Amino acid sequence: MSISYNRIALIGLGLIAGSMAHALRRAGFEGEITGYARSAETREIAREINLVDRVCESASEAAQDADLVVLCVPVGVMGAVAKEIAPVLKPGATVSDVGSVKQAVIDSVAPHIPEGVHFVPTHPMAGTEHSGPRAGFAELFDNRWCLIVPAPGSDPQAIDKIDELWRALGSTTEVMEIAHHDLLCAIVSHVPHLIAYTMVGVADDFSRVSEQEVIKFSAAGFRDFTRIAASDPTMWRDVFLENKEATLEILGRFTEELFALQRAIRTGDGEQLFDYFTHTRAIRRGIIEAGQDTDAPDFGRGKS
Ligand SMILES: NC(=O)C1=CN([C@@H]2O[C@H](COP(=O)(O)OP(=O)(O)OC[C@H]3O[C@@H](n4cnc5c(N)ncnc54)[C@H](O)[C@@H]3O)[C@@H](O)[C@H]2O)C=CC1
Ligand SMILES: O=C(O)C(=O)Cc1ccc(O)cc1
């Protein structure tokens, strides 16, 4: 697998950009990696830990002369960053992003992409609850999906090149259509995060149980919720604001199901509860048998 870019710029130096930098080096990338983050403190840390070859003082400085510029900032600011770097992008270069939402990012970034510059959005389906320049690690993308979500008119050759890059970083890739991506991610990622945030909030609010007791007696299920609910607030605020329609669609279905289960509990309908849980257990087993559960002991293919 070859990486066909000589200079790669990473804008935003957090978990994803940091992991890309580590994975690029692991893959033997010999070109230059430049980077920029808005906060001076992040830039300072990035220099200190040698995260990229050159930490720049502006996004434009980092993007200048790059063959590939990857926007690794919260989805709400992708458009502003694209606008800022547009004047320095060289003809033939590719702009990509790693945002968790695609339609809104395409709508805000595409209008700023100059003639002769390619735009190929992507979304690595891998992350942790940690953020910032120290959070990245080379194995993050190993055996995880990276979805390639072409914008209208994305160049097939530019798509192939970014696809090769993600495979070199350890991912398995799949090309996906924009609306399908946003709905799928609302189901498998965005709404589950919202449920985790809510459950942790409810536990905290529950006045009869002190916070200490919640932590002390928490079983695995709640602990998973607390891990997820520790994710970066800026990133997740932007995800919900920018994937509004799909999130509300899935939340609507979720609350319908929740009300049905609530009613079954109230009326003592054990059969309905049993049937429901039997069905969901089969889904979990299907995931494990398909080898899709990276956290299961048999398939421990990387950290999450
Ligand atoms: N954390 C995760 O699990 C995953 C995140 N993503 C997406 O990747 C992107 C980055 O996420 P993380 O790396 O987790 O976030 P992070 O919070 O670790 O890093 C974001 C970086 O962007 C910088 N930044 C913020 N606004 C900026 C601006 N206007 N100009 C320049 N830099 C700016 C911050 O200083 C920080 O260095 C987001 O769009 C997110 O939706 C995608 C897959 C997984
Ligand atoms: O840590 C988790 O549970 C995740 O779900 C990771 C993740 C978070 C956001 C994404 O856009 C993709 C993957």
TrEMBL record:
Catalyses which reaction(s): prephenate + NAD(+) = 3-(4-hydroxyphenyl)pyruvate + CO2 + NADH
PANTHER family listed in its UniProt record: PREPHENATE DEHYDROGENASE, PREPHENATE DEHYDROGENASE [NADP(+)]
Family: Belongs to the prephenate/arogenate dehydrogenase family.
Keyword line: Amino-acid biosynthesis, Aromatic amino acid biosynthesis, NAD, Oxidoreductase, Tyrosine biosynthesis
Entries under Pfam families matching the protein: PDH_C (PF20463), PDH_N (PF02153)
Statement: the UniProt record of this protein carries the keyword tRNA processing: no
Database matches in InterPro entries: 6-PGluconate_DH-like_C_sf, NAD(P)-bd_dom_sf, PDH_C, PDH_N, Preph/Arog_dehydrog, Prephen_DH
Protein name: prephenate dehydrogenase
Database matches in Gene3D superfamilies: 6-phosphogluconate dehydrogenase C-terminal like domain (1.10.3660.10), NAD(P)-binding Rossmann-like Domain (3.40.50.720)
Record-listed E.C. numbers: 1.3.1.12
MF annotations from Gene Ontology: NAD+ binding; prephenate dehydrogenase (NAD+) activity; prephenate dehydrogenase (NADP+) activity
Prephenate/arogenate dehydrogenase domain segment(s): 6-295
Pathway where this protein functions: Amino-acid biosynthesis; L-tyrosine biosynthesis; (4-hydroxyphenyl)pyruvate from prephenate (NAD(+) route): step 1/1
